[in-house]
Amino acid sequence: MSKAMVVKSGNRLNRKVAPPVKDAREFELELPPYVRHSLSNGVEVYAIDLGKVDAMMVSWIFDAGNSYETGKGIAAAVNSLLRNGTSARKAFDISEHFDYYGAYLNRACHHETAELTLHCLNQHIRELVPVVAELLTESVYPEEELAIYKKNAQQRLQVNLKKSDFVAGRLIDSYLFGAEHPYGRYNMPEDYQALGREELVQFYRKHYQHGACRIIAAGKLPADLIPLLEKYFGALPLGEPAVGAAVPEFLIRPAGQKKYRVTNDPDGVQGSIRIARNFPNRHHPDFQRVQVLNNVFGGFFGSRLMNNIREDKGYTYGIYSYLVNNRQESAWMISTEAGKEVCEPTIEEVYKEMNLLREELIDEEELEMARNFAIGSVLGDLDGPFHVASRWKSILLNGLDENYFREGVRIVKTITPEELRELAVRWLDPAEFFELVVV
Amino acid sequence: MTIKFDRFELANGLRVLVHEDPSTPMAIVNVLYDVGARDEDPRKTGFAHLFEHLMFGGSVNIDDFETPLQLAGGENNAYTTNDFTNYYIQLPAENIETAFWLESDRMLSLAFSEKSLEVQRKVVMEEFKEHYINKPYGDAWFKLRELVYLQHPYRWMTIGSELRHIEEVKLDDVRQFFFKYYRPVNAILVVAGKVTTRQVRELAEKWFGDIPSGEKYVRQLPREPRQEAARRLEVRADVPLDALYKCYPMASRTEKGYYVADLITEVLGSGTSSRLHQALVKEKKLFSQIECHHTGSVDPGLVVVEGKLIKGVRMEDADRAVEEELEKMRAAPVTEKELTKVKNKTESAIVFEDMSVMNRANSLAIYELLGDANLMNTELDKYKAISAEDMLETSREIFDHRNSNTLYYYSEK
Fold first, then answer.
1. pLDDT-derived band at A246, boundaries 50, 70, 90
2. DSSP H helical segments within B109-190, as ranges?
3. Can you say whether residue B380 is alpha, beta or left, with left for phi > 0 and alpha for psi between -120 and 50 degrees?
4. Which of A273, A372, A388 is best to mutate for the B interface (most B CBs within 10 A)?
5. Predicted structure pTM score
6. Could you tell me which residues come within 8 angstroms of residue A7 by beta carbon, excluding any fewer than 6 positions away?
7. Which of A98, B92, B310, B354 could covalently link to A103 via disulfide, CB atoms 3.0 to 4.6 Å apart?
8. Is A112 helix (H, G, I), strand (E, B) or coil?
């Protein structure tokens, strides 16, 4: 189909025949490189100078995720309250400073890392970087701000606990990794109540003020960016981020029981279905190969799960499968919300699709579609400095390098139906999957 | 930064805009149809959106929309608003003709498959449940729209006012809707990315040129009468926290008042340095979260304040505290610093949004719908021209208590 030519009969267009397309395998995909700079204290800056708009982002990434915390919720609270008071400025003054220059200062706390990310117009960077430095060195965690945070976070959690998708997401992670593991642990309202200022300050001191940090900058970068970062961060007592064996790893204890049915809201009209298995991390040779298999299975709109469960049966608004973005160990997850009365048939169809992939070879057209879709989306994703930066971030934080990207592209272009069936036999055994429905 | 584009019309009335950007390897093909939920029959609401789903169910010559697009390395999606329906494809620029082939065939005619209708009815009903029934506070906006709009069809949500309307849709309704609204004369095609105007002109003539023009749809919607007195509504539901919603009618999309109202909502409720957050979350501790935004619609929209109350706070006290803040907007002009802040924020939001070629294509289509695609390039100047006096005057109009619509959403437990 893809190689067909447009045939004109007389002057009439033949609309039945698709125009020719350039095949995915012919596209050259290159991840634009970064330039690495080291500040005097050894902190590394990965600079991606791309784009034609005078706008940029800088991300300060610390080893300060919830893997490092000594009590539930500390890492997230410390990260969230980074902009709520320094020795010189109150929370309002900090917010107003960034807002005044039209900048966005976002925080995010993950399992291994936590970050502070600034997006701004280039013309304002010199007014903003000094205040970011202040937040990372002079935060004081005022009692009053902590009290507001605790109360509001508890209230937000109460609302979320009414949502079946939120509850299902927490439970499935705890089955996969164990309720003690940083990936499987979750907060209850009383955990927020237990947060104490002293613990927060200690965490901040250890993991931010004297923490391990790397910086990623992207955009049409101003010439004086590196000297500016050197001036404000180059003399701070910051160390190098943990790599390889130095990354803390925790014992993974998957649950013994595989199947769960949970009633969260007796009046709920839909069930949140999660079907998942433990899966190795990005360093495993099957990881990127399974990503191609996952595309066929449930990775995009043209996938088998979507075609069967949404487009043929209408059980759901959407169904997707994906490999979870974890550093120590991943998981292969299938996720959907389906009508309460069709949850069980939905699960049955998911297993049916697994078995089909284990038994039958994927035909050439379907594989070509998955390949081309994957290449097209990488191509689209390499468009613009922020997308490129987020690719690099994932590679760097997982302790990989540009070969990982090249290898991924090579796999997409060359993997065979036989290899994919072999992978399905190895990784898509329904007996290995946890199964959860929360209504 | 000025967004350059070329514009031409085909003989059948299809408006075509081209935005060349050779720096990306991708092309965007965006088709906007001038029909949204506001054009629906009050007894058949949710139809425009259900129809959007059916646009993926096969067209007259192509039974499967997705497969050939994915073979060409493309991705696509669509959305429906109260005002219009927009479809977009992103794909490697070399394969752009695939997008022309697909989009033109579904503009020529759908396949009108019974099976597709049957399945998408169910899919949309699940979408309805997922977003509006199975979510705490999911029904609040159904109630607010009915409270505020008595005449204008913004009275109902894009998803529809009830599940039954979707259940009852017939294939004949689908056919009529298509041939009334989905015609070249009611559509705008925007092509952006690594393309040239010459190439787009040829492809547009080739693929869209022979589609029958159709009849221009002339919209005649009831105007919402001016509100004369404050309105309020109370509901009780099984939600964990009390919530307060307040809505005030504002100007339509192209009036000056729209830009002023946009900045007013920024001062009041955007970000943690905004007035409502600072006064009511941080100082008075009445709300755990509060925001102020507007609906941004083409016809006169709404300024909205919505917040969740701290447990134990009385609704009346929270409401009064919000009104005090709105009263301050009517009593004294915003400070120069506040004005500069919200203008800087607006400028920055525009720059970041326009970094994506897909957003640029989408915006060009919307501004063309509003009457002139070049509005995209004059927006920022309109914001920059706004004075503190303008803000004061417009705040006085908007926040007049006779214009208020208040919903007390009580937690039953």
1. low
2. 114-128, 140-148, 163-167, 171-181
3. alpha
4. A372
5. 0.93
6. A14, A17
7. A98
8. coil
